[in-house]
Design goal:
The chain has about 50 residues and is an all-alpha fold. The chain is about 55% helix and about 0% strand. It has one domain. The chain is built from 2 helices and no strands. Helix 1 runs antiparallel to helix 2. The longest helix is centred in the middle third of the chain and has 21 residues. The chain is elongated, with a radius of gyration of 13 Å.
Length: about 50
């Protein structure tokens, strides 16, 4: 968070990443990719919990 100051809202950043991952999962599935592979978007979402 260096450079952003002390008042960074970590919950807002986590929420943004969650939405981004959910949208990416939909795109991956719609385009024939496996979003559940190790290291893919589902792993990223699970790491946020």
């Amino acid at each position: 968070m260096a450079g952003y100051g002390a008042d960074v809202d970590l919950d807002a950043i986590r929420a943004w990443w969650a939405v981004r991952c959910l949208l990416a999962i939909r795109w991956l599935v719609d385009n024939g990719f496996d979003a559940f592979m190790p290291g893919a978007e589902v792993d990223v979402l699970r790491s946020l919990v």
